[in-house]
Design goal:
- By secondary structure, the protein is α/β, with parallel strands linked by helices.
- It has one domain (12-166): Rossmann fold (3-Layer(aba) Sandwich), CATH 3.40.50.2300.
- The chain is 40% helix and 12% strand.
- The chain has six helices and four strands.
- Strand 1 (11-17), helix 1 and strand 2 (44-50) form a beta-alpha-beta unit.
- Helix 1 crosses helix 6 and helix 2 crosses helix 6.
- The radius of gyration is 15 Å and the shape is globular.
- Bound molecules: 4-nitrophenyl phosphate.
Length: 169
């Protein structure tokens, strides 16, 4: 059933990376801002998770938080590991790179679940030549800035895609 403004079934988005402390919490925070700016917070919900549980319970990486703050974001979600029940709880599972894609896909137990998995870069508008959001964890500042540029672009594209999928105009 498609949601309409009068008959709301929330559209739930889950962003997934490896550690859930750099890319996916940033995607979650950026998308939450876009959803709010478009007054869609009653319709679209966002969350994030990691394919590893290495940083379970942690705030996002300090470097990602401070690069985000300079752009007006407050990335403050707590890391958690991706779980099989996420396939039931979310409509879009949006992964940051090919490794995340392989890991999440291996946990899908039906074609319908597998169909929920999308690559973040598939929603890119300006940066459409990349096929991954590069992992910034072992790099320097420019890597974090690049990730934020890519995510801001892809989150705008994602909203357009959702609006089209659900006829939200
Ligand atoms: P993320 O980045 O997947 O974007 O959260 C990473 C965070 C932590 C590690 C690797 C990548 N790590 O090796 O702990």
């Amino acid at each position: 059933m498609n949601p309409t403004l009068g008959n709301i079934k929330k559209i739930r988005l889950l962003f997934v990376c490896l550690g859930n402390i750099c890319r996916s919490p940033a995607a979650e925070g950026i998308m939450a801002g876009i959803v709010e700016k478009n007054d869609l917070q009653d319709i679209i919900e966002v969350d994030s998770a990691g394919t590893s549980g290495w940083h379970e319970g942690d705030l996002p990486d300090e470097r990602m938080r401070s690069h985000g703050e300079k752009r007006g974001y407050d990335f403050c979600s707590r890391a958690r590991k991706f779980r099989r029940s996420d396939f039931d709880d979310f409509d879009y599972i949006i992964v940051m790179d090919q490794n995340n894609y392989t890991t999440v896909k291996s946990m899908a137990s039906s074609p319908e679940q597998a169909d929920k998995i999308h690559l973040m870069t598939d929603y890119a508008v300006q940066y459409s030549s990349l096929d991954e959001i590069p992992d910034p964890y072992y790099g320097g500042s420019s890597g974090f800035e690049l990730v934020l540029d890519l995510l801001e672009d892809a989150c705008e594209g994602l909203l357009q895609s959702i609006k089209k999928d659900y006829s939200l105009f």
